[in-house]
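Protein modeling request. Please complete all fields; requests missing the sequence field cannot be processed.
Requester role: graduate student
Desired output: 3D structure, C-alpha cell encoding
Chains: 1
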Amino acid sequence: IGHPEIFPLVLTTKTQEIFNCRVDEDVTEENCYKIIKKEDIIQDLETRANISDFYPVRKVVLEYPGEELLVVFDAKFQYGQNFYIVASEEAKENLVKPPDTAEEEEKEDIEEALDPFKPLVPRPWVSLGSEKEVEEESVKDNVRKIKFKISRVRRKFGAPIAFTDKNASHGTDGYVECTSYEDKTFSIKMLEKDVGLQIVPKVRETSTQTKWTYPKNAATQYCPRQFSEEEKAESLSSEKLKEFLTSVHLRVEIALQQNEIMNAFFDDWKALAEDKSSSDGKPDIYLKAYQSFTDQQYLKDRTISCICWHPTISGIIAVSARQQLSYEDQVKLSNKSLLHWSVILLWSFSDPIHPQLILACPEDIYCFQFNPSDPNIIAAGCINGQIVLWDISQHGGKLQKEKPVADEGVDSDSEATAVAEVATKVSPGVMPSLMQVQQSSTEPLLVKYCTVSSIEYSHKKPVTDIQWLPGHFEDNQNRPENCLQLVTCSPDCSVLFWDIPATEHQEKPLSGVPDTSKHLDLSWKPLIKISLHERDANTEYGPIRIILRELQYCYKTSGKAKSLSAVKAPAKESPYTEMSRSSSKNLEVLENISTNFFVGNEDGVIVYSDWKMKIDTNSAKPTQKYSLHTETINTLQRSPFFKDIFLSIGGQNFAIWKEGVTNGPILQSSCSAGRYTAGQWSLARPGVFFIGRDDGNIDIWDLLKKTHEPSHFQNISKSVITFISPGTASPEQHFLAVSDNLGVLHVLEICQTLTHPSSNE
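Delivered output (761 residues):
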C-alpha cells in the first residue's frame, strides 16, 4: 500500500539457482539487490510457462521499459514474500543509488563549475554632499565649562591618619546642612492638584406615625372653559396659528400615512410565539395518517433499518429490514450467515398490499441509497461489511406503471380474499424457495444483485452509513455520466471510498432468475481507505454517521463504458485500487475542493477531520472532537437549506452545529425523558425537524416558536421509532415516512403549517 511500483513474489530454490540470487550466498540482508536481465526472465517464462515463479508478474515484466529489472531480497517479509520486483526505472534508481548520494555528487559538480573567488578592489570615495547632513546633525559643545581646582597643603601629603569617633553636629568642616528656603526671585504656579476625598454617609434614625382617617365619598365636576366667539375668530385668524400649521402639516401627514399602513403599537414578539388554532378546534400542527405498509413474509418479527424515496418516480418508497437485535448483538453477529431472506422492498402508493419489486440481498441491509443521477442503480451496506449494487433498469416500467387507487369504500371481502391468497401460497413456518416466488405471476418480481464487494477488503463490521458522491466528467462526446463514487463508514474505524465503473444497460429484459455467476463480482475493492484514530493516544473512532462536502472530481474516459460484470480486478493487485485501470490513470483531483468531513461515532462523539490522504500515511487525524452525546449517534444530517448547518441526534439530546464554529454547537437541547432514536430535517421549512423516540412518539420541533421544547408531539406506534424520511409528492403535499421496530412503515401527511415557510425563515 503506497508503493504501486513494488510487486512481491516467491522465488523457489531452483529459481534462485537459475538467476544466481541464492539467499545468504548471492543476496543477504545487507546486500539485498540483484539485477536480472529482462530477456532471461522472458526466456524462463517461455521455458517453464505456468510453473515459473515470475508467471504472476508476467504482465509487469513484459511492459517494463528497461532492459534490466531489480529484484530485492525481502529478509523481513515487509511486503509479504521473500522477494519483490521493482517495476519502474525511477524506483530502481532510488533504491540502488539513494537520493542523498546523488545530491552530493551534483553539489560537487556545481562547486567545480563555479568560477574561483576574485578579491574585491575598493574604489575611491566620491563626495555627494552627505557629509554636510552628518555635520548638521552632529552635537556641538557650545556651553562654557566651569573649572574647579582642588588642592591640599603639601605638608599633609603622606602624613599618618588616625580615625576617631566624632559627632557631625559639633564640627563645621565635615558636616554641612542644606536647609530649604523660599526663593523670592521666582514662583511656580500650581496647575493641577490631586485631592482624595472619602464620603461617609450619616445614619439617622427617624420615625413617623400615619393617622388613619375614615373614607369619605366625594365628587368633582369638571367644566370646560370655552373661548367666546370673538376669541375664536381672533385665534383662527392670527398669524401665529398659520405659521404653526405650516410648519407641522408635513409631519402630521407622514404620521397619518404610517398609522394607515401599520399598527405602531402591535407587539411582534408576542405574536411570534402565539399558538393559533384552526376554526374547528384542532391544532394547526399535526401529522395525518396517509398509508401504512407491511409484509407478513419479509417484515414479520423484523425491524426496518432504512427508508428511501424514489428520486424521480412519485409514490415509490423503498425499505430494508434486519433482525430485531441491539447494536451490540449486531456487531457480534456481523460475520455470521443468516438463515432467512434479506430483501429491500419497493412499495407503491397505488398498491399498499403487494410490493412492486423485491431486491434480494446476501445479508441484512443496514443502509442503502438510490443513485441521484441514475435511480436505477441502488447501493446498500450489509451488516457483514460488504457493499451491494443492484441495477433495476430492466424493471423501471413496472414502477412507472399507473394503477387505479382503490376507493375508500372497497369491499372488505375482496381485500380479505387477496390477503388470504398471499398467505395460503406459503405454508406457516416454511420459507418458500426463490423459484416458487419467481414462478408465481401475482407475486412481485425478485431482482438479484449484480455486484458485491470483496469480503476481505470490505468493512469488518456493519456498514452504518452510505452516500453517493456527485461528480463532473469530461468526455470526448460531452455526454452526461452517472455518479460513479460513493463513501461508506463502519464502526471498524474506517471510511471507504468506492469507485464504480460505468454501466451498460442491456436491451433485452431479463427472464426468470438472473444468472448470479455473470453478475457477482467478489473482486470489487475500495478506492481509498481512511482509518480514524489518534496516533498519540491510540484512540479509535468508530464512525456511525458521516457528512461530507460536495466533492468534484474529473474523469477523462476513453472508449465505451464497461458493464459492472465485465470488470474483474486481479487478485494479486494492491487491495485499495480502482476497479477500472483506464479510469484510474485519468482521474484528476481538483485542488480547490473541501476535504473536511464530520463523523458521529458509537460513543456519542462528533469528530471533525480532513480525509485528504498524505504521502506517508493513509489515516485521518481528527482536527476537533466534541463529546456532547452520551450514546451512539443515530442521526447526522446536513440542513437542506444551509450547507454549513447540520443536526446531530444521540441518546437523550440533540444539537445543531455550524461548520466553522469551533467552540461547540449553536443550539443544544436539554436531556429528554426518553431516548431519541431517529431524526430528519424538514424539506420545506428550514426551522423545522422531526425526531423519533423510543416510546413511539414523533417530536416536531419548530425553532421559530419554541427552542426549549417541541412544538408538538404525536404518537405513531407502540414500538420504537427506527427511521424517519421526509418526501415530497407536490409543492402542496408533503409526506413523512416513519418506521418502527415491528416492521411497519407509516406514511404520514404533513400539515400545511409545517410546509409553508415564512418569508425570512
